[in-house]
Every structure is written in structure tokens, then in C-alpha cells.
Amino acid sequence: MSEKLIEVKDLKTQFNGKNGIVTAVDGVSFSVGKGRTLGIVGESGCGKSVTSMSILRLIPAVSGKVAGGEILFEGEDLLKKSEKEMRRIRGNEIAMIFQDSMTGLNPVMTVGKQLVETIRAHNKIDKEAAWKRAEEMLEKVGIPSPAQRLKEFPHQLSGGMRQRVMIAMALSCNAKLLIADEPTTALDVTIQAQILELMNELKKTDKTSIMLITHDMGVVAEMADDVMVMYAGKEVEYADARSVFKNPLHPYTKGLLASIPRLDQDDDRELYTIKGSVPDLDDMPEGCRFCTRCPEAKERCWKEKPGLYDVGGHKVRCFKYEKGEVLNGGEQDGTESGTD
User: Fold this and answer.
1) CA separation for the pair 171, 63 (Å, rounded)
2) Using CA atoms, how far apart are residues 309 and 239, in angstroms rounded to an integer?
3) Cα 103 to chain center, whole Å?
4) Nearest to 11, CA basis, from 21, 22, 24, 25
5) Max CA-CA distance within the chain?
6) Which pLDDT band, with edges at 50, 70 and 90, does 237 fall under?
């Protein structure tokens, strides 16, 4: 096991809902090793993006808060840092590629000015050197005529180009941890492959750790060393990528994998879909959160909350595996353990 760069313990993030306080991330624990990629997967609304925003302390105070847990970055709890310290950490130590490229770019500043400002804020170089680096970064992420694009405003670029500018901005900081929230959603397949290859190069050459948030299991299979599957604010499966793809344990993970189209399947065969949708935060099932959609649910699943069980290093939140070691949650007999 590689040395941990970041370790999240029992993270709990809450928001003000219509009917009171709702918990969007409920006791999630995971770690990212140095030079490794953790893929966090799940449908929209499962808590993936909220987890990443919690790490960077970007949850808007007017609507929500990190209500509990620890976020240990190189052994220091980010939740105990001042806002001034967090501003230094964001970009320098932890960089993020946001899902929505338009919200991340200032519409009244040229692309070049924004890139140069970012580069100079995190590197001690002059304006000329920063401009040259900005041009190099745009070229790296596959933007044609980079010198010209630097002079343009965000609205003059396509959605895919804006996303690549955001990626260039994040990669230019040489951060130790890169959080990528659906980084290739707006890109065509050739550019997507180029960006993923660039991220892999970064991991190899600079030992950058990557937290990749996505719903695309194909991207996870290509990129991730470890995988955490989230559902309705909780981790339901967590193991190395090979184990998750070769031997998925949780019914939700099995459903996600079964939903991927395969070239060797009969053309007339109907694509598999997971019935139903993720429950509302203020209307969670009494028992297992997946019970309303689970093809294997028993009566017990509707009434009791399963713990997170360790099955030979493969962690899963399902009663089928309760003979494994109990890690957290639930009220079953077993030996309490850490989640590293």
C-alpha cells in the first residue's frame, strides 16, 4: 500500500433543505495514495461532487457546512485550517477541474490573462515566462492556435475548448492532488483520450495523486488504481480497481457495470438499466439506501441499515457480506476496525 497523501475519515456534509437539514455526504471514509488515482463513481445526486467541494472547503456557508469528520492532507486536518491557509492550499497543493467550465472562467477577462494570473499566483516567475507557460499548457491540452486563443474571451470558445482551458489552468499549478470532477464530459472522444493520457503522464512524471469523479465506468477502468462507488451519500463499495471490475460485490456496482454497452452482446438485446432513481435527501429509506431499487433486497434490508464490511480488503455495504469484518455503521456483531 502506498503512502497516503490525503485521508478522509467519516466525512459528513449537510445542507439546509426545504424540510430541514439534509445530509448529502454521510460518514464517508477513503484515502488517496501518493501517485495513485482514486475513481469515485455513482449517479448524479450520490454525493461525489459534494465530497470534492468539502475537501476544498468550498461549501457555501449560507446553504451548508461540513458537519463532521476529518480531512487529513499530509497528516494535517484541512477542517482546522484558516481561510487564509486554505487559499494557499487551493491551487498550490490541491487543484480542481470543475465540471462546469463557464462557472470557472471570468467572462470579462481574456483566457490568457486568467491563465497567467493563475500561473503567477502559484509559481515565482515573471509575466513573460508565465505567458509562455500558458501557451504551452493550451498546446498540451490540444487547443489549436494557442497564442490566438489566449487573446480571446471565454464566450468566443466552444464548450469543449473552455473545458480544456480549465484543465490547463489546473495542471499548470503542479499541485500534489488533482481533483477532476467529470473532466472530459464536454469533450469529444479524441480530445477525451488526450486529456486522460495527459493526466496519466502527470501521475507518472510528477507523482501527482488524482481523485477522478465520474459516472463513466469506462474512464474509471482506464484511469483508476482504486475505486469507491457512492450511492445516496454513502460509500457502498471500495477496493482496488481490478477487484471491483473483476468481482463486484454490491448490487449497485453490479448494476453500473451491467449498464455498460458491450461489443460482444447481441444487437437485439435490450440494454440493462437500474430501475428507479436515487432517493431524495429528505426522504431516505429506513434501511439500506439502495433497497428501493435492489433486485436482491430482502425484508431486513428495508428496516435495518447495513454496515461497511471488509471482505479480504474489499469493502462493501451489504448484508450479504456481514460475516466479514465490520468497519463502521450498522448494528451487527463484529470487530470494529479502521478504514485504511
Assistant:
1) 30
2) 12
3) 18
4) 25
5) 67
6) very high
**pTM across the whole model:** 0.87
Classify strands 20-33 and 4-17 as parallel, antiparallel or unpaired: antiparallel
64-73: strand order across its sheet:
20-33, 4-17, 64-73, 76-77
Q: What is the CA radius of gyration of the chain?
A: 21
**Can you say how many angstroms the Cα of residue 112 is from the centroid of all Cα atoms in its chain?**
28
Mean pLDDT of the chain: 88
Q: How far apart are CA 239 and CA 322, in angstroms?
A: 17
218-222 CB contacts, 8 Å cutoff, 24+ apart: 218/260, 219/39, 219/184, 219/192, 220/39, 220/41, 221/245, 222/196
Q: Do the beta carbons of residue 310 and residue 1 sit within 8 Å?
A: no
Rounded CA-CA distance 114/109 in Å is 7
Cβ neighbours of residue 237 closer than 8 Å, sequence gap 6 or more: 227, 228, 229, 244, 248, 249, 250, 252, 253, 314, 315, 316, 317
The answer to whether the Cα torsion of 127, 123, 104, 148 is positive or negative is positive
Q: What is the pLDDT of residue 327?
A: 65
Rounded CA-CA distance 223/213 in Å is: 11
Residue 315 contacts residue 340 (beta carbons within 8 Å): no
Assign 339 a pLDDT band (cuts: 50, 70, 90): very low
Alpha carbon of 313 to those of 206, 209, 232, 324: distances in Å?
28, 21, 23, 10
Q: Which is nearest to 179 in space by CA: 140, 138, 208, 222?
A: 208
